[in-house]
Amino acid sequence: MMNFDGLDAGMGDYPPSLHGTLESSMEPSMDPHLNPSLLQGVELDPDGLTVTVPESVHLMEGMFSELHSAVSEVGIPVTATHFDVQEEMLWMGNHRGHATSFFGPTMGRFSSFQVHGTDDIRHIQSLETGVLFLSKCNLKCYTRGGLVMFDYPMDEGADMHSLLVTDNNTLVMGGLQNYVSEVDLNTVQETQKFTVELPGVAIMRQTSRFFFCGHTSGKITLRDLRSFKMEQEFDAFSGSLSDFDVHGNLLAACGFSSRGLNGLACDRFLMVYDLRMMRAVTPLQVHVDPLFLRFIPTYTSRLAIISQTGQCQFCEPTGLANVADIFHVNTVGQLLMSFDVSSSKQALAFGDSGGCVHLWSDAPEVSFNDYSRETDFPLPCLVETLPQLDWNHDLLPLSLLPTPLTSTEPLLSDWSSVMSTPSPRRAPPVDPEILRTMKTVGFIGYAANPRTRPRNQVPYKIKDVELDYDNYNQVPESPIGRDEEPHLYMVPKKYRKVTIKYSKLGLEDFDFKHYNRTLFAGLEPHIPNAYCNCMIQVLYFLEPIRCLVQNHLCQKEFCLACELGFLFHMLDLSRGDPCQASNFLRAFRTIPEASALGLILADSDEQTGKARLGRLIQSWNRFILTQLHQETQEQEGPQAYRGASSSSLGSSGESAIGKLFGCEVENSSLCRCGKETVRSSLTLLFNMHYPEQNSQEKTIKEYEFAEILKKSICLEQSTQAWCENCEKYQPTVQTRNIRCLPDVLVINCEVNSVKEAEFWKVQVEYAVNKALQKEANEPAKPKEAPPMPTEWCLDGEDFCSMEGFDPRAEDLRNVWIPLTLKMSISKSQGLEISSWPEGEELSAAEEAEGAALYDLVVTVSHIQDTRTGGNLVAHIKVGETYHQRKEGVTHQQWYLFNDFLIEPIDKAEAAQIDVSWKVPAILYYSRRNYHTKYDLRIKNPIDASVLLTEASLARKQRKSHATFIPLMVSEMPQAGDLVGLDAEFVTLNQEEAELRSDGTKSTIKPSQMSVARITCVRGQGPNEGVPFIDDYISTQEQVVDYLTQYSGIKPGDLDAKISSKHLTTLKSTYLKLRFLIDTGVRFVGHGLQKDFRVINLLVLKDQVIDTVYLFHLPRKRMISLRFLAWYFLDLNIQGETHDSIEDARTALQLYRKYLELSRGGGNDEVRKVLKGLYEKGRQQDWKVPDTDTGDGQGAAVFPSVMGL
Question: Where would you find the membrane-spanning parts of this chain (predicted)?
Fold first, then answer.
């Protein structure tokens, strides 16, 4: 029996249609929780049962009465109910984690699914795209049909109770712990965690002014919408809080009072607060024990108060409660566990402990929302009856016969991907007349309509389009969708060309970690001539080269060895973040030999794929080795800079490149007359030469790779040459022999035509067949257990290679290149080359005879793509020293380097070649343990002399025009000293972008910037704020935009013939900054991340103090230096143009101001000041008022904030 103590005795006079049956003298039912009268005419099923309402029930307009009831799971308490705010649906969740939805006022079942295996569902919230379900330690989002959209687990120990969607993309969650989490629904990641007092937050509400948080201690706190800081606190109940709601200027709460030793008692007084005066008004006495309450505003601010036993009372929050306003929910002896009100305020939902949901309404035609969207229902079966088939008819189509679909047998129509190729229909080219008359404004082109085609119609000629596609030479119109190209179906995704997708933030929100989870640094591909990125990585991972170029420094403005040294230093410092080779490639473009060899690509050739990258990278390989050989053997010496003494290595004329790659060769020419001419020379690499095939031979013979390599090194060919004895051109036989073995054998594969590619293909097939035959003849070996993964292996990554590799035949597919070669030179037999088992060593006798083992360490391949020219990738065997420096482990491992994509791979994959898409270009074999003979120490060649006074390149520059005072010897910076820095830039190439159909801009290629001015000012001492570097950087490349409004650079400032500025080379100023970085100074500036990126410097985070981040609140806009200077310093800077000296000084002053604020009040004081800053910025629209400097306008701004 229910307890109706305190209820008016006249309740029994009301008709049962309004408040249900109060008597409970019923026979025992099937289930102790159910009334058998509810089960009449209802069929029970394992999924649940539906409860119908007798048709005789008539609803009285304006008074709430029961409309329908439904059961999801019998006997399982309903812990959460929720009216969908988008569609006409009612959701419920129960104690066992199961969710069910019902459609419309008839409560037809729509969907039912399990949300959590063990925990109860505590809160349900509908969104536009799905429904959120909150359990104790988990937040899940499902579609309304029951498909998982995301699963967000909480921290260990979380006990969540409520959630609140603050806007379209953000929600906050609270529970019985000391924090409230804010989660971004777009990224499904926690953005902030706000600290709250224990015992935590159990109920949350929101208005346009505050967050309202209800605590189990009986208190209600009002919190700031942005910072979640507590603004007001109401101590509502002495025991605990049960529920509260907010409407307009009123807050009503119900709860429990403490009764001393007797525990808690339900308080029949509702606490009501006026939010205008922030104080309590007269408490409201009610006639039921309140468990839930909600405002149900219609004409007045009505309150609905619900007790756990099912009594419901309506009253006004400012008046007296009337007993006649009580009705009763027929729960059949069960307790109410959950309650919700629809957004239209026309329907109420109650969930009880017996698994039943009761829908009450004040109108027969109820709608849950004012404007609900249409609900998508599953399509019904449209086939009612099968057609009659006439077996005697000769033309009866067999497709009419229904056949069962089995998973074991494929359908005849299921064509395999090998037998079918997608053939997309390409858009026709733009009318040439439009391109001819087009005028470009910014990145948008405008042209008159030539009216050669109907409006909004594009004619397609299928045959012509297919022909164009076969010979496609243009860059794709849009970067969107480039990931999946139909002709790349056979190319693994990691080998495809990677592109950076730029947003309005540039590269800040691009996830490079998705492509590279190692600690090695990739290289960005968007710079002109960055096709050589893979070869730069090859040179970096050769330890002697890495040490050689970092020890090298000379006075040449454009020295590739110096620039490689600077770049390798950045690769050493990086912890997985990509670097740019922009300065190296800038110097590379100025080398006349590179241009003469055709190594400098135009932008159009690089984008449209006209460049033959395989041949190009082999020419680049020859060029770079020759260039480094020349630059490192010059008399100036590797450490000669500004008069420093030459090293012994430089003065001797011997190059480490020659010692590493050089091989002395003997070229012999034998004329028909018998005269032989012998010449000696040094070669740094060898080209592969393949045997000529006779016209009678239809098949290509089988060759060993070592055999082809020997014939290519010891080359013998017939050609026409000048004979001094005959004094005319004669047929001569030219023979090449080598006198010594190099430490690193470099091979250009020369697979430049179909003939060479066919030769490789056939040899690979021979090698595979031989491996399969050998495996079939050998007895099966027991498979060894794989070794444990080492520390460098990433957790959860299945591509980590194991060093204990077993070269099975299936792993040797497409492998013709041996992983190890044995090479020796004997007087009797000359050069001998043979394949060698990788794990074995030479005997002492073989070593005494001069034999050596060479391991494959590099393969560079051209990935074929007929549309864009493909891309180049490198497989590199990274040695132990690199792993030791980066990851602290002693290990050797093969990696794939594809620009900024880096992945560990198996060594068999490095040697695998499939000429249909992966064409070999370059091979490096290194002598085993060759590096022990080289000095691998790096002595930084950059010293304090780079900061000394230097002459300007400008002819008109005078000392009286000097804008800086160089550092004295006594002022040389020390570790930890402050240096104010600012840089200005000019544009070399404009940004390439496209305008999408939805009006948004997509950046295809960013603008190419070049540093034009670098300023450093002293950060301490008597001369604080005085510049010691103010260099204008001379450039030989064409400047398309000087950006004078933002940079202050004018045409002519960078021209040595007419400039009056202190003009220097980029290398000279770069060395000054490198010295400051190596010394350990801390740079202070505004937006230094972009400055260092364009200068091409990598600076550790603890050496950078960026004011753009010091004065910034999370998820807010970045603030300009001009506004910060006006607000905090009362300075009006950057009036007409920018001046880097002024900007650097201002950044230093702002840092001093930040330190002053931090010392004065700590982080809380800084945060309060920043809130005032953003408030002032919104008022000013982030524009500085037009006032003269020092008029006191700015000085009045900041003190007012300090007084908050």
Answer: none
- Residue 950: count of CB within 10 angstroms of its CB: 17
1151-1170 pLDDT, tens digit each: 999 998 888 777 888 888 99
Task: Find out whether 3 and 11 touch, Cβ atoms under 8 Å.
Answer: no
Q: Is residue 47 a known part of a binding site?
A: no
How far is it, in rounded angstroms, from Cα 1105 to Cα 1124?
15
**Does an H or E element contain 182, and which?**
strand 179-184
| Other C-beta atoms lying within 10 Å of the C-beta of residue 269 | 15
Among residues 1095, 1193, 1076, 1194, the alpha carbon closest in space to that of 1140 is found at 1095
DSSP one-letter string for 418-476: TT----PPPPPPPPHHHHHH-EEETTEEE------S-TT-----HHHHHHHHHT--S--
CA 1098 to CA 1077: how far, in whole Å? 9
* Cα–Cα distance, 1152 to 171 (Å, whole number): 37
**Do 1046 and 1067 meet the contact criterion of CB atoms below 8 Å apart?**
no
Sheet strands side by side (includes 728-738): 676-683, 663-671, 728-738, 716-723
How far is residue 916's CA from residue 938's CA, in Å, rounded to a whole number? 43
DSSP per position, 1092-1145: HHHHT----GGGEEEHHHHT--TTS----HHHHHHHHH-----SSS--HHHHHH
Angular region, 212: left φ>0, alpha ψ -120 to 50, beta rest: beta
Q: How far is CA 261 from the centre of its chain?
A: 58
pLDDT in tens, 237-263: 999 999 999 998 999 999 999 887 778
Is 5 annotated as belonging to a binding site? Answer: no
Is 984 annotated as contributing to ligand binding? yes
- Cα(682)–Cα(350) distance, integer angstroms: 92
In the chain, the N- to C-terminal Cα span, in Å, equals 60
Distance CA 949, CA 1031 (A): 12
Q: Is the pLDDT of residue 861 over 90?
A: yes
Are the C-beta atoms of residues 91 and 75 closer than 8 Å to each other? no
Token pair belonging to 737: 């022999």
Residues 6+ apart with CB under 8 A from 103: 88, 89, 109, 110, 375
Nearest residue to 73 (alpha-carbon basis) of 103, 100, 35, 40: 100
Distance (Å, rounded) from C-alpha 90 to C-alpha 366? 13
How does the average pLDDT of the chain come out, rounded? Answer: 81
